[in-house]
Design goal:
It is a single chain. The chain is mostly helical. The chain has a single domain, classed as TorD-like. About 60% of the residues lie in helices and about 5% in strands. The protein is built from eight helices and four strands, in the order E-H-H-H-H-E-E-H-E-H-H-H.
Length: about 220
């Protein structure tokens, strides 16, 4: 069974939680992969470090994507054995915690031409599906929050009671890809590859770019777009 788990977003109506869990399938595998990616780019706490040190992030991505019907091979990745948690957090901050164009590099605002318009567009996406930013300081256009959104609407596709409704969630996914991920994730990945002093972070950004691109093409194919 698969259950979605949001961190950057929450349902606006707490009394309408929707489906709790559903049988695992190709669509929940896509949702699960977005779930892991969101956690991968979250704050580098002690658990985050231990997973990087042991290679567990790559294993979790491989497990999440076992039922995918398109090719996604995260490979193996881990930080050096002699890298401690403080060094890891510092490396994360150096590569992923900085700013570009006055915005955090993990936010769309650092990469799109009209950050204010993009912010409003993202909020409209969330609100249309009954979501809002959770009670954190994380921006609505942060990568973790956007992965949360894709995790949620992909899960809703899997749980849809009719093919027609499922298709509407699928269209929303393609729209979000074209208006968000496709516009700035490739640039983010290129930036991280150039800036990373630890191969692990370049791997993480590459996996993100590879998966979002493959997922976009998969959804477009299902819709005949």
């Amino acid at each position: 069974m698969f259950v979605y788990s949001l961190s950057g977003l929450e349902l606006k109506d707490s009394g309408d939680q929707g489906p709790v869990e559903i049988e695992e399938n190709e669509t929940t595998a896509r949702s699960a992969t977005y779930q892991v990616l969101g956690r991968l780019f979250g704050e580098p706490d002690a658990d985050h470090y231990e997973m990087a040190r042991s290679g567990q992030w790559a294993k979790e991505l491989a497990t999440a994507g076992e039922l995918l019907t398109f090719t996604f091979e995260p490979g193996d990745a881990a930080i050096p054995d002699d890298m401690g948690p403080d060094e890891y957090a510092a490396a994360f901050a150096h590569v992923l915690g900085g700013e570009r164009a006055g915005a955090p590099v993990l936010c769309a605002a650092a990469w799109v031409e009209d950050a204010a318009h993009n912010h409003d567009e993202v909020v409209r996406f969330y609100e249309y599906f009954g979501l809002q930013a959770a009670g954190t300081e994380r921006p609505v256009d942060h990568l973790v929050t956007e992965c949360d959104f894709m995790q949620y609407i992909t899960f809703r596709e899997a749980a849809a009671p009719s093919p027609r409704l499922g298709k509407s969630y699928r269209r929303a996914q393609l729209d979000f890809h074209d208006r968000q991920f496709s516009l700035w994730v490739p640039e983010l990945a290129a930036h991280v590859k150039d800036a990373a002093t630890v191969d692990f972070f370049a791997w993480a950004a590459g996996v993100l770019a590879d998966f979002t691109a493959a997922d976009r093409e998969h959804v477009a194919g299902l819709l005949g777009a």
